[in-house]
């Protein structure tokens, strides 16, 4: 896991979510839809804590974990900066595959918005899913991020020089067979695993969850530039809100899942 820590030691993940606001906006919208007042949420693999801070600002109690000590430190600083210490019940360095510091059924809901696609070995993904199931209460919702093989194929075909070794058909064929991607250029995105879309629900269900929804986090607007966003904001508050409502509605359309860079699985642990 050292390569993942090294990558995030030099990458601005908080800034990424600000530069690519659709993913954060859509995910948070659907997460809040399923959280009840007074919920204690674990943000597992929280990175610098953008979701955790937003949920704490909404009045939820939050515990935060991440593999990277640097990102945990950034998250702790954001919590202090926003004066949210009383909403946080813990901020820890932890591996999603080993949440042994928490007892069974500790949390009302759990976010896991990164760890699964960083785990390239099947047994590691299985272990993270088992730990997720263990620490959430019966009846509790989980929110899990996936990256789709289809979207990465699109990216590779459109921009092959940016996604080596997927700049050759041999590289692309191997990627489509395995779902495993390791960038040939040093310092680029850390190694990852990309799921076939039709395997996401079965994967979570085999680990005990009942599936609720699979959301396209990029919706239909992930490729919009700032000028295009400015147009809709400039139409006034009422038109802009209707625009956002349409974006959220479209995110639930299963026919656009393959076009989205990130997917949000929503499931529930049976009572």
Automatic annotation (TrEMBL):
InterPro entries: Methyltransf_11, Methyltransf_Superfamily, SAM-dependent_MTases_sf. The keyword Nucleus does not apply. The keyword Signal does not apply. SUPFAM superfamilies: S-adenosyl-L-methionine-dependent methyltransferases. Residues 42-143 form the Methyltransferase type domain. It holds the Pfam family Methyltransf_11. Keywords: Ubiquinone. It comes from the Bacteria. This is Ubiquinone/menaquinone biosynthesis C-methylase UbiE. The lineage of its organism: Bacteria, Bacillati, Bacillota, Bacilli, Bacillales.
